[in-house]
Prior knowledge:
By secondary structure, the chain is an alpha+beta fold.
Amino acid sequence: MKKSELIAKLEGAKELTPVVSIDLVLAALGMLEPEVKVEKVFGMSQELAEEIASKIERCLDNNASDLVDTDSAEFSLNYSNTIELDCAQINVYDTMDHINACLEEFVVEEDEDKEEAFVQAILAADSNEADEAYEATLS
């Protein structure tokens, strides 16, 4: 419940009776939504960036044979009977698989959905108890 809603409920209770009980006020205050400030900082330290880059570089170096699509390579025969590589495609899918595998090691998994559901359940329980207490005082 927002502050303005709480004030409106208290004003409504005040019209019914000139005295508002402390229990009613406490129950109503319990229904207020807490001010939640969520601040997410996105970024990483230079040390972490270097570690990630180094790990990706080592992974790509160890899997160099997977990085080039040899089926798409184009060659030409030169005048001196030498074979020259004209074009070769990068195997983007396999390259990204290797990079993603490296990055997964640095991912911190947070079960935000479960945490959010837990917080909502607590707030709903507190709100329901406070609403019941408030309604009981009005009756």
